[in-house]
Amino acid sequence: MKNQSRLLLAGALAAAMTATATVAASAQVLFWSTQASPIEETQAMRENVLAGFEGGVDFQPQEVGPFVTRLEAELEAGSGSIGIVGALHGELSTYADSWADLSDVDLGGVEVNETFLELGKLGTDQQLYIPWMQANYVMAANRQALEYLPEGADINALTYEQLVDWMEVLATETGSPKFGFPAGPQGLKHRFFQGFLLPSYTGSTVTKFRSAEAETAWNTFKELWQYTNPASTNYAFMQEQLLNGDVWVAFDHVARLADAFNQRPDDFVAFPAPSGPAGRGFMPVLAGIAVPQGAPDIEQSKALVAYMMQPETQVATLLATNFYPVTDAPLPDDLPPSAQALGEAISTMTGGEDALPALLPVGLGDLGGQFNQVYTDTFERIVLANQDVRAVLDEQGNALASLMEQANAPCWIPDEPSEGPCPVE
Amino acid sequence: MTDAVITDVPRSVSDARAAGRFLLIASTVLLCVWVLVPIYLLIVNTLSSPAEVTGFPKTGIPSFDFGSVQFFLSFAGVARALWNSVLVAVLTMVLSIGLGAPAGYALSRFDFPGKEAFRLLVVMTRAFPLPLLALPLAVMFIRVGLDDTALGLAIVHTVLAIPFAVLITFSLFSGIPIELEEAAWTLGCNRWQAFRKVVLPLVLPGIAASAVFAFTISWNEVFAAAVMTIENRTLTAFLIQSLNVSPLHLKFAGGAALVIPALIFIFAVRKYLFAMWGIANR
């Protein structure tokens, strides 16, 4: 017993000593990110993207919860260790007051997409964040499913009705529903409603939330749900279900489909999201990098921002994360299968005549989560709980309208510009 | 008449004993399966190639593909995070027993005003969700310089572990008759000596068990660890958030990386855990 307690004491002492010894911070820039959190992407970011930066980078991807808490703590304390923040446009816009102006960063002649640069100003005349990378959502299908494609349907110009027909044939012929939809807790279902389904039918995300066209959209989706694998309410990364054959056709974020294409490039095809009466709605995803005003070494952080925008870094980022460059960086010919297939589907979708881009929410600040919840709730009530579509849209429309007023957020694309908060008709 | 007598023979005692034995063995097997099957599946999938993990049907036999494991071992910082986890867990263990055991002793031996309120307050520390506490704590830690240290995180984990430490040691000390201590006093021991020579040896296994609890609480905690540490990440903070959004085969490998050290630790201290249930040295 004596020995044990002595051992315990010695252990505690040694532990306390090492604890104080490790306090000495390194001079690396801490890269605090909500992106590239899947472990393989993290590894690739560290080894292939950031390793070339002089002085070193400590890349730390986080879930949104700890990400925000830590960031707020450092902003409140007025000092901290975060050198550079990488996050989605919506996450960055919440802390507009806390970012340093990046207008004076020398990008060395790199041309950055103008629209994205404008978004990075967050409505001010300072460059509060610099666009970092972009992605999109597309459809992916197992090649076996193509045999069941209804006559006259072209996967590159599919409509929602044709998709429903196709899935119906597929379900009847194979004996089980083969469509997959990321409706799990970690899934990105709300983006489908905000940026794809509703704009395609109504040409709007917010204003026409309660319109008759929106009713048609939801009814079509309800029909599609009959041919959707019921386990979809657990799905988050459709690449897994595509790979194990649970679903043959799926909708998801390109970064969440890439693994399927990289593992079995010959088995899958990528194609644009379907179109509706109002056009082919799609939602580009924009991630940006910002520097907190309290960063330990602002100059070094700005140097890292410039490094991230260089053509080689942008291409390396594409290979690591499946997010595409926001600059004029030339893409190499030997891209991996995922980047090739998905990139092609994206350009078909965004370059088509009926293309109808719907931006991520702008100006909602920290109400972004509640905004998403309106769409998720609508989905759960209409599709999962089978409630009356009209009644649900009326009620959720009220919730959406009061949210817009609370945020005092004017309409954003694809909705018509508004004076004052975006109305819900 | 005689027939009826013959059919009404009481069942022999050995029958009942056999049935009891069957029940015992069946429940033992069930319990073992309950614990072992998930661990088995975890290990099989860890040692399989990605294609086998997502494929179906499963063979149930590992193919000893070390791809996922190797990926893990090469993932920058795993070893360091593992060390930090152990460090924080040991510190938590020492702190929570160091603070909790005296409190438990005081609760069981002395009457003092506010005793009931104190017991309630101790449990109350678990009533506030950590995401709520983490922000002000992190701000304070940054200001006082405890931020990003193993000690700082261990203090937070100690707060989480202390209710268990206090309540377990309270019931342990209550289980030792005060007469034993009184006898020691009459034989010339002072309070400290009586405690050290009589009470402590009797409760040590129990204290070790509550220390194990403290260890596992610290080992499993993610949120505070993710917010309070950056350079000195613990393994859970380091891995769980990334694993949550990683391919299946890496989830399995990461799961194994989290479970196996904990299993080894529990195995190492099993003697004390069994001692708490009175089946030591069997």
Automatic annotation (TrEMBL), chain A:
GO cellular component: periplasmic space
Keyword Signal: yes
Superkingdom in the source lineage: Bacteria
Signal peptide segment: 1-27
InterPro entries, per database record: Bact_solute-bd_prot1, SBP
Keywords, ordered alphabetically: Cell membrane, Lipoprotein, Membrane, Palmitate, Periplasm, Signal
Main location class: periplasm
Subcellular location: Periplasm
Family according to the record: Belongs to the bacterial solute-binding protein 1 family.
Name of this chain's protein: ABC transporter substrate-binding protein
TrEMBL record, chain B:
PANTHER family per the UniProt record, alphabetical: INNER MEMBRANE ABC TRANSPORTER PERMEASE PROTEIN YCJP, MALTOSE TRANSPORT SYSTEM PERMEASE-RELATED
Keywords of the record: Cell membrane, Membrane, Transmembrane, Transmembrane helix, Transport
Xref: InterPro entries: BP-dep_ABC_trans_perm (IPR050901), MetI-like (IPR000515), MetI-like_sf (IPR035906)
Protein's recorded name: Sugar ABC transporter permease
Family membership: Belongs to the binding-protein-dependent transport system permease family.
Any one cellular-component term (Gene Ontology): plasma membrane
GO BP, sorted A to Z: transmembrane transport
Transmembrane segments: 22-43, 81-108, 120-142, 154-178, 198-219, 252-273
Bilayer topology: Multi-pass membrane protein
Domain of life: Bacteria
CDD domains on file: TM_PBP2
